[in-house]
Amino acid sequence: MHMPDALLSPAVAVPAIAVSGAALAFACRRAARELDDRKIPLMGVLGAFVFAAQMINLPLVIIPGVSWHLIGAVLMVSLLGPYSSFVVMTAVLAIQALLLGDGGLLALGCNTLNMGVISCFLGYGVYSAIGSWAGGARGRTLAAIAAAVVSSTAAAVAAAIEIHLSGKNPVSLFSAVWLMGSVHFLFGIGEGVLTVAVLAFILRLRPAAVQGGAQVQRAAMRRFVLAGLGVSLLIGGVVSWWASSSPDGLEHAAAVFKWPEGESAFGGLMQPVEKALASVPFLANALIGLTATALAFAVSLMLSGLAARRSAASKAA
Amino acid sequence: MQHIVSLNGLKHSYHDGTAALRGISVQIAAGERVAIIGPNGAGKTTLLLHLNGILQATAGTIEICGRKLDRASVAELRPKVGIVFQNADDQLFMPTVLDDVAFGPLNMGLAPDEVSRRVTEALGDVGLAGFERKAPYHLSGGEKKAVAIATVLSMSPEILVLDEPTGSLDHRARRRLIRLLTSLPHTLITATHDLRMVAEVCHRVIILDGGKLAADGPAASILADAKLLEAHGLESPGS
Amino acid sequence: MHHAYVDQLSAMSSPVHRLDPRTKIICTLAFCGIVVSVPADRLALLAWCVPPLCAALAVSRLPLLYFLKRCLLLSPFVATVLVFFPFTQHSGTEVARVGPLHVYSGGLLMSAVLAARFLCTVLAALILACTTPFAALLRGLEKFRVPRMFIMVLSFLYRYLFVLVDESDRMRRARDSRSPRPGGAAALRAAPGMIGMLFIRTYDRSDRVYSAMLARGFDGTVRTLDELHFHVADAAVLAGFAAYFIAVFIVAR
Fold first, then answer.
1. Distance between CA atoms of A294 and A223, rounded to whole angstroms?
2. Is residue C59 in a domain?
3. Do the beta carbons of residue A112 and residue A88 sit within 8 Å?
């Protein structure tokens, strides 16, 4: 999901660099408090681990020939906590951009925002919220899967929005968001399940390593849940409002060059779908998406709470 | 005569309670070259890690250069004991050889000019002059081991401690290492399985078995005692 | 491995290699910024970005064939967008028809511009990577006030990158030689163990590295010798770069 420079405009890339840079500086200071003195070799070597783990190609069993791989953000978050894992993931992204050309140099800001800030902080918010509410091994399992799904989808949606705001989106924002979001929703499930399996393996052999990030105070957890919801509101609500109220890159270009008004649909294939979606104003679309996410969040919290209560009851019985 | 390393009743137990060292008492004089040999699990590496305070004794005392080694004196005494670990890859953790060899002296608070001088000198001593810009990944096993020794030499230690120095080296690299060790004036303490190297390099041999001192004497006589060696899971190096 | 090859190339020598990393970083970022900022209707300006790239490539003595091959590796993002634009951008004249889909020249133009931008930025970044040893790159970044902890994490990451990739390669080979059929569900089942084992080996290694650092007096701060020196060549390159693009913008107006 690494975006190249060519797909972003300076108006999007530069603020993203500023925000990511500030987040990195902040995280470095916080990471100093999160782990003890051995954090620098630990984070560095774990960065190499994440890089190497991402190179292990796994078959997408349902579609032969297609492969996927672990991203590792949720794994890092569950082992190191949000700030240290953010530093690690950002380091991996930087290495990939600098050495592999995977992701542009100017795009590092946006890529870090998506696969660093959102993956680690939103992921941690979901992980600790569900982990604390549900409790125990089952809670951790649900927490990891939920964290992977939510952060994966959110990161993909953010990427789609960034490309759209840069004027390089060939389809409508809604199509791009749905395309990216749905694909990464599925990948998120895979990531979550694999992360749980890896965590179980590590817990058996090196339980000390797992103590790290999962300890959260109730207050801090609430802060993260709110922050996570806030981020999604920001992306879905404010950014989309901005995108819809000012003409986007393509529309602007169309206005300037007096291009004929064309349906921004892929020939006639998506036309009926697009027509139905276009009839509802974009803001309404955003609100629908947001409500659905929030509902899903709430439902999973309720379910995990029920599961926790039931396991507590069966223990007491 | 003051001993440069003095262990008295050194005991160490792991977290789960198993005893690793059961009361070791050894006195080593400056300039001596001592080999610690014994079967696997005897506690050789554990013993070495006490010498610069990475592991703390659960009982007994350690004296380095006449001073007691404890939490307060560790920072001052650590530069005097240069440990070269078994796996050179773990010891060369900086991006270039220069950075690795400079790491120790810089931590000692020396001026950049002095650090550069020491780096050049240390690399020269191990026969790798001009290797400053190289990345550790590109070095051969023998070169890595030599750089690892240089990283410790640049701190001007009094005592060199080596854990399995000839472990993964090919014949040529091993030859070069033996020549290097015999040329260095430092007090040498090495834990090793390589009894042939011990015969060439060391004056004195200590046998460690089950956390206890089983023998302590001149290298020539201990290495010739095949029965003693066999009793502790070792094989005589032969002619 | 690609990153291993980049590592080799960056250790070579040429006038470009010898420049201060800060010069190269500034030029590369500025170049990418210019390429990305050129408005879509000013194609001529984009064409003027090509000569500096060619000059840098030529002077750096890097293997041309390797670079051409890397160019062909399209990012999936760019590939998708490139394919979509000609069909969804209904502007200009209709050029062709593929079944029910119309292809317009406006869309083709947008694809071409996107491809050009992609090539220029990717090549620039690649030249930077292949002419600057990573350790030097980190020193340059440090001078630009990138947080020290991050620089150190990058340093350790890079140092152990090759070691860990080797380990993971070995595990993959072991897994493949024990699987009935590569790419089957067996590979998936082996994944948690492989990744978990890789983690544990890494975790243990970090313990040993930390011990080694302690043994050499580590107290929480990693210190390095300051080594970067700005030379006349650097000033000349920066001035030349600026002059070139200022001239281009003035003339093209």
1. 16
2. yes
3. no
Residue A110 has pLDDT above 80, yes or no: yes
Which residue ranges form the domains of chain B, and what is each CATH number? 5-231 (3.40.50.300)
Predicted confidence at residue C229, as pLDDT, reads 86
Instruction: Give the closest of B103, B133, B137 to C216, CB-based.
Output: B103
C133 & C247 share domain: yes
Boundaries of domain holding C172? 147-215
Distance from CA of C56 to the nearest CA of B (A): 24
Hey, is the C-beta of A52 within 8 angstroms of any chain C C-beta? yes
The Cα–Cα gap between A210 and A212 comes to: 5
Of the spans A21-25, A170-174, B3-7, which averages the highest pLDDT? A21-25
Kindly report the nearest CA distance between residue C153 and chain B, in angstroms.
11
Helix (H) or strand (E) holding A282: helix A282-316
Closest CA to A150 of A176, A129, A174: A129
Closest residue, chain A, to C90 (C-alpha): A262
Q: Are residues C49 and C157 in the same domain?
A: no
Put simply, the answer to whether C135 touches B152 (Cβ < 8 Å) is: no
Q: Is residue C98, in this structure, part of any structural domain at all?
A: yes
Cα dihedral: C134, C135, C138, C139 (round 10) = -140
- Using a CB-CB cut-off of 8 Å, the residues of chain C touching A87 are 149-150, 153
Domain count, chain C: 2
Which pTM value belongs to this model?
A: 0.83
Residues C106 and C178 grouped into a single domain: no
Q: What is the pLDDT of residues A189-204, one digit of tens each?
A: 999 999 999 999 998 8
Q: For A206-281, where are the alpha helices, taking DSSP H only? A: 207-214, 218-233, 240-245, 249-257, 271-278
Average pLDDT, chain B: 90
Left, alpha or beta for B53 (phi > 0: left; psi -120 to 50: alpha)?
left
Domain ranges of chain A: 5-246+280-316
* Claim to verify: residue C53 and residue C133 sit in the same structural domain: yes
Chain C residues closer than 8 Å to B103 by CB:
213, 216, 218, 222-223
**Token pair for A201:** 């393996």
Least confident span in A301-305, C108-112, C138-142, C228-232: A301-305
Residues 183-242 of C with CB under 8 A from A: 183-185, 187-188, 191-200, 202-207, 209-210, 213, 218, 220, 222
| Facing B91 at nearest CB: one of C212, C218, C219 | C212
Chain A interface disruption, residue of C7, C46, C77, most A CBs within 10 A: C77
What's residue C153's pLDDT?
95
Is the confidence at residue C202, as pLDDT, over 80?
yes
CA distance to A210, A219, A262, C10, C211, per residue, from B94 (Å)? 27, 40, 58, 17, 14
Specify the DSSP element, H or E, that contains B107: helix B97-107
pLDDT at B25 over 90: yes
Residue B168: is its pLDDT beyond 60? yes
Which of helix, strand or coil describes residue A230?
A: helix
Q: Are residues C35 and C75 in the same domain?
A: yes
**One domain for residues C23 and C95:** yes
Nearest CA distance, A175 vs chain C (angstrom): 12
Q: Are residues C177 and C133 in the same domain?
A: no
Asked, for residue C223, whether it belongs to a domain, the answer is no
- Region A5-246+280-316: CATH code: 1.10.1760.20
The 10s digit of each residue's pLDDT in A293-306 is 555 555 544 554 44
Under an 8 A CB cutoff, do B136 and C216 touch? no
User: What pLDDT was estimated at residue A53?
Assistant: 93
Residue C224 lies in a domain: no
Residues 152-211 of chain C with CB under 8 A from chain B are 155-156, 158-160, 162-163, 205, 208-209, 211
Structure-token pair, residue C174: 């072991």
> C62 and C98 in one domain?
yes
